[in-house]
Structure formats: C-alpha cells, structure tokens
Amino acid sequence: MDQAKVHSVDEQDYNIRTAKSSDHPRIISVMPNWWDGRDLRPLLPRLFLKHFCDTSFIIEKENELIGFLIGFLSQSIQDEAYIHFVGIHPDFRRKGLGKTLYRRFFNQCPNNGRTLVRACTSPINKDSIEFHQRMGFQIEPGDGQIDSIPVTLDYNCPGDHKVLFMKWL
Amino acid sequence: MDQAKVHSVDEQDYNIRTAKSSDHPRIISVMPNWWDGRDLRPLLPRLFLKHFCDTSFIIEKENELIGFLIGFLSQSIQDEAYIHFVGIHPDFRRKGLGKTLYRRFFNQCPNNGRTLVRACTSPINKDSIEFHQRMGFQIEPGDGQIDSIPVTLDYNCPGDHKVLFMKWL
Questions:
Q1: Most exposed of A58, A61, B16, B34 (fewest Cβ within 10 Å)?
Q2: What is the ipTM metric for this complex?
Q3: How many whole angstroms separate alpha carbon A64 and alpha carbon A85?
Q4: Is A62 in CB contact (< 8 Å) with chain B?
Q5: Cβ(A67)–Cβ(A89) under 8 Å?
Q6: How far apart are CA B105 and CA A57, in angstroms?
Q7: Is A47 in CB contact (< 8 Å) with chain B?
Q8: How many other CB atoms sit within 10 Å of the CB of residue B89?
Q9: Full-model pTM
Q10: Which uninterrupted H or E stretch holds A132?
Q11: Phi/psi at B135 (nearest 5 deg)?
C-alpha cells in the first residue's frame, strides 16, 4: 500500500497508520460516545478489521484513538473501492482529520487499480453529506428526494434510505 | 471462479448460481421469516451483494429463493476466505442444501489461492455448530466456554460471544 505523506494542517501532531485486527475492541468501545449514544456497533463486526485492515486507517494522539476509517477494495468490481465507516473523536472534529483519512484511503487506490470510490450515508446526516461534497464526491441520482437531497430508497432494507456518493480519482 | 459441478442429492432440482447485487432486496425480504422473526437484516447491508457477489451463491427453485451464502476472499490475509452469512428456506432444510452451498464456496477457493475458510456463529445456534462440525470445521479454542462449547468472548462487541470455526481445504 502507498504510505506516501499526505499533507494536512495537523498531521504532524498525530500518528496515522493502517489498522490492525486488534484495533477492533477499541473502536467498538468509543462508538456509542462518538455517535451521541446511537448504537451503530452492529455495522462494524470484527470481520472488517480482520479482513480489510490493510485499507483501513487509524489516527492516534498520545496513544488515544482519535479517528478511524474502515474501507476496502471491491472484490467483484475491479476498479472500485468502498469507504464503509468513518469516525472522529468529538473533541477533534473540524480539524481536517476526516479529510486526512479520506486522502490516505484515496492515495492507496491507484496502486491497487481503483479509479472510483463509493460511500453512502443517511439523509439525516447533513454534516456527512456536506463533507462528502467538499471532498469532491457526487451524489448518485437515486429514486427519491429527502430535504431536496437525492436518495436511493430502501437501500439496505425497507425504510433505510441512503445518500450514495461516488468520486472518480 | 470455479463452477465445477458439486454432487449433492437434490442438486439437479435447483438452480444454483453466483449472486448478483440485485438479489439483495429479495434476500432481505425473506430474512425475518427464515429467522423466526429475529431481525438480522443489519448484518447484511447491500455492500456484501455489491462487492462480494462473485463468491456468494444463490439457490432457486422455480424462481423462488431457497437459499443463499454470502462469502468473500479475505483482502488482508491472502490465503483465507470467509463465510459471512448463510440462509436456507425453512421448508427446504435438512436436504443437504447448506452443504451444497458450502461446497460451492470451497470449490472456488483453490483457484483463488485460499487454503483456509473461516466462519462464526452464536453459541445459542446449536444447529449451526453441529453443521460446521459435520462440514469438517474445527472450533477455535477461544477464551471461554458456553454449554461446553469453546467460545471467543466479546467477539463483535461486549456480550456478543462467538463460536469461531476454521477449516483447512
């Protein structure tokens, strides 16, 4: 994987590295707090950290977990990569760390033959929608609209509508 | 992928094929009924059918969904493959269809350089534990025991203990 330096305002203050399977319990332990008590832990079973750790990234500061990105290279679609889950410690938001994680993920795509990155989010998550747009993602047209945002209805199951993002590298 | 014929008692009566992304809504729609009302749908977001469909398999009979296996080749561990989720229609159990799906998954492993297959289940699921043992899986030693079965405690999150299986091909 490409470990080239990514330039970001605060990057020198943090330890940014690829993930390890053993990071999983620590990620799980912070999730309820980082998501205001919402329990999203079922979305991140250990398999993601065991089998896709080499395209997933961790940010630490003085050994404390500050952020993580869980992504993988599509197995079925040879030119695509997918960002599944991203979290930043509430006290360290708005510092460019999400951008740093995404860039780290983008950087290892060309060496792996990936030209398209996909991600998705819930229509309620306006911060995430704006973040992806700032990062250059397009929203896929979908088959519905919520708050004027195009959504793909019933994406993961009935009632679970999603905003789908794609970005050509 | 290796599509070699797998010999199974009932196989000629069924259509067995690799999965497609468009199978996802149909799989999601049967899950509550196939699992006695338990809602396991969050464990199978659409990403598995989009990005790992070429190592996932579907059984149909007269166009009705009878069974499915969702599996993938580990990205981080080059010689491993993982079976994530398997379901068989309640009226078609105990006919060897689970075995057929597992063999189909095993058959495409050598061509992809995979010599070890892993899977896991909940300790409460005695049928699944017996099935994996009949299929030649070993249970990993773990760090606890439930009903005399070795389990790995807190595997996906605190309280979510799992029986971990491995099988060398």
A1: A61
A2: 0.92
A3: 19
A4: no
A5: yes
A6: 30
A7: yes
A8: 18
A9: 0.92
A10: helix A126-134
A11: -80, 0
Q: Taking CB atoms and an 8 Å limit, are B76 and A53 in contact across chains? A: yes
CA distance A63 to A91: 15
pLDDT of residue A10: 62
Tokens of A159: 């009632």
How is B137-161 classified by DSSP, letter by letter?
PEEP--SEEETTEEEBTTSSSTT--
Residues facing B85 on adjacent strands: B70
Point out the residue among A42, A50, A76 whose CB comes nearest to the CB of B43. A42
Q: Are A139 and A150 in contact (CB under 8 A)?
A: yes
A-B contacts at Cβ under 8 angstroms:
68
Closest residue in B to A74 (Cα–Cα): B51
Give which of A56, A76, A50, A71 is closest to A16, Cα–Cα: A56
The answer to whether B156 contacts A77, with C-beta atoms less than 8 Å apart, is: no
pLDDT in tens, B20-61: 999 999 999 999 999 998 899 999 999 999 999 999 999 999
Partner-chain contact B75 A80, CB within 8 Å: no
Residue B6 has pLDDT above 90, yes or no: no
User: d(Cα B101, Cα B114) in Å, to the nearest integer?
Assistant: 17
Q: How do residues A133-166 score in pLDDT, each as one tens digit?
A: 999 999 999 999 999 999 999 999 999 999 999 9
How far apart CA B129 and CA B140 sit, in angstroms, is: 12
Tens of pLDDT, residues A83-129: 999 999 999 999 999 999 999 999 999 999 999 999 999 999 999 99
Q: Which amino acid is at B133?
A: Q
Count of beta carbons in the 10 Å neighbourhood of residue A1? 13
Structure-token pair, residue A114: 């990936």
